[in-house]
Amino acid sequence: LTxxxxxxxxxxAQETLERQTVLSQDKAAAKNEIERIKPWGDFDPEGVRxxxxxxxxxxxxxVPDAEYEQIKESEDISILTIGTxxxxxxxxxxGTLPKETTAAEFALPEKGIDELNDRxxxxxxxxxxxKEVLRDVAKYKESFNKAMLDAQNAENFSAxxxxxxxxxxxxxxxxxxxxx
Length: 180
Hints:
By secondary structure, this protein is an alpha+beta fold. 56% of the residues lie in helices and 16% in strands. The chain contains five helices and six strands. It has helices spanning 3-37, 45-53, 65-73, 113-138, 141-161, and strands spanning 58-63, 78-85, 88-94, 104-106, 165-166, 171-172. A four-stranded antiparallel sheet has the order 2-3-1-4. The protein is elongated and about 100 Å long. The two termini are 36 Å apart.
């Protein structure tokens, strides 16, 4: 392929490689988010947002056992114990905890585990499509090799052109020739 046909193929290959990179990053981000929220269980973040929209302001925390007992005994704080995560108590609090606590607040995810798994599956499907496109493009390997050689020759010619000097009667180039 040459000319516009090659340019279109090159653009398609470049676009596919960029898309492949974005999909791989999306997939890795979804996997990381699953690992972050997995200890909290599979829940629907939209349900929590809906409660917040209705004025029920839940916040989620992990707290050390000793502090958990103090929080549990406090009459000013309404909590719901969810379980244990990394040797700390996981709790839902109506409102927020006082700033002096050492509790770590859990940031509510945008999507739940099921949605994230669906995103991973979709990324895998699209990555397979990218592989198919790149397999088709690979059939034109010689066209790419020729285009690279042409680009390298143009670069070399440009570099040599910058060493060109002249006077009234002559033009000369400076450089290295591997043969006499």
